[in-house]
Specification:
The protein is 31% helix and 17% strand. With 342 residues, the protein is α/β, with parallel strands linked by helices. The protein has a single domain, classed as Rossmann fold (3-Layer(aba) Sandwich). The longest helix is centred in the middle third of the chain and has 19 residues.
């Protein structure tokens, strides 16, 4: 059986061209295209799927489902007995469609897929089973396209929403009223630009609990926000986390996203105090893109995964193992100031 660590090492070896940040498009000649026999998506398929062990000793299932004609590879981390018999997990005891006590924390990785293979939100953390989904794109870009132009954002966000609604109940017993999200870089672009404004009513209607952690990325809504989705967003806990040396193309995009989500809440009748309790923001770490620990992309993303509960689940806002409190209310802090660019 492959362990989480061995899967990660395989991933890093196969994805030799992994990129963690939103990139602008590159032009290649016909000869270069012929030399590029496989895409990042093709290379990812060479990494074995199956069952492995999470850092807390629970079970990780790595599998693929076709959703709306798109191959969505995903990982789920939970106790073995919470998986369904059809999942193929040893010790599975649930039936398809069973409701469970665990909620979900669904992670969408950055461009290139690094955080899918690292799976920083694995294990059961504060009542949430970790889930990570791999972008069905040749470059492993959530929303396709490049940079801030996510040309497949509508299709990808619909596929993720449908994966949670139709596929996950066939794999795991979970509480569908407790679905939260974590975005990393390009994954944050898909969440803020498309999935949240287009589908939040599915996850944050009356009686449901949903928290969203948007790391190192943000877009204004790129789709129309229906009345139902606007009302749901006004009941969703959202935190925007960046750094002092964020990517240049994201430095104006993240504050624009913050202002747009604040306006949605305002239009729903929330006052300044209510918005400040619901929406928070921070960019005080001195690192570059996603380097929230001021050292490295991978360890920085892991720090935020370890701090999910402290930041968005009514915690004290202090990042794990530090004295850094990131809970600054959005009202009055919309216009982030950066000290440089990574």
């Amino acid at each position: 059986m492959l362990t989480v660590r061995s899967l990660t090492l395989l991933a890093l070896g196969a994805l030799s061209a992994v990129e963690a940040a939103p990139r602008k498009g590159r032009k290649t000649s016909a000869a270069q295209q012929q030399q590029q026999a496989t895409t990042a998506f093709d290379q990812a398929q060479q990494i074995p799927q199956g069952v492995s062990t999470a850092t807390d000793g629970s079970t990780i299932l790595d599998t693929t489902a076709m959703v709306n004609g798109l191959p969505l590879r995903f990982k789920v981390s939970a106790p073995a007995d919470q998986f369904t018999a059809d999942s193929g997990v040893d010790g599975a005891a649930a039936a398809a469609g069973d409701a469970g006590d665990l909620g979900l924390n669904v992670l969408l990785h950055g461009d290139g897929g690094q955080s899918f293979f690292d799976f920083p939100n694995q294990a059961v953390q504060d009542g949430l089973a970790g889930v990570a989904v791999l972008a069905p794109d040749p470059n492993l870009f959530w929303g396709g396209g490049s940079g801030l132009d996510r040309t497949d954002g509508v299709a990808h966000s619909q596929a993720v929403a449908d994966l949670i609604a139709t596929v996950m109940p066939q794999v795991l017993a979970f509480n569908s009223s407790k679905v939260s999200f974590t975005g990393v870089s390009g994954g944050s672009l898909l969440l803020s630009g498309f999935l949240l404004p287009g589908h939040m009513a599915q996850f944050a209607s009356a009686g449901q609990e949903s928290q969203v952690l948007l790391n190192c990325g943000g877009l204004e809504p790129q789709v129309d926000v229906s009345a139902d989705n606007a009302a749901a967003l006004a009941a969703t806990r959202i935190h925007f986390q960046s750094t002092q040396q964020e990517l240049a193309l994201l430095q104006p995009a993240i504050p624009a996203a913050i202002a747009a989500y604040e306006q949605i809440a305002t239009d729903q009748g929330l006052d300044t105090a209510a918005i400040g309790a619901l929406q928070t923001v921070d960019n005080q770490p001195l690192g570059g893109h996603c380097e929230f620990d001021e050292q490295d992309f991978v360890s920085g993303v892991q720090l935020m995964a370890d701090s999910f509960s402290a930041v968005v689940q009514d915690g004290d806002g202090v990042l794990a193992g530090t004295n850094v409190n990131v809970l600054n209310p959005v009202p009055g802090n919309e216009d982030l100031t950066f000290s440089g660019a990574s």
